[in-house]
Amino acid sequence: MTKYDENQLIQSVRRHALDNYENNGWDVLVECWDDGDILERISDANAQTPDAAIKACLSWVALYDERRREIRNA
Length: 74
Fold this sequence. Notes:
By secondary structure, the chain is an all-alpha fold. It has 4 helices and no strands. It has one domain (6-73). α1 packs across α3 (35-44) and α2 packs across α4 (50-73).
């Protein structure tokens, strides 16, 4: 198994967020999160691969996106 350092995981999440900017709230991550925010999420999830890091952040950005849609539809 390949060992990834924190910076590699953070950059993987950032690339994914940029590639999916208009989907599932990834724009929130691109516009509002710094590297420390990403690191906190992937550390809390004990994510050790790029896919796991992306999944850990998706749960948060999707929640933001859901709330944003609820507010817009209110």
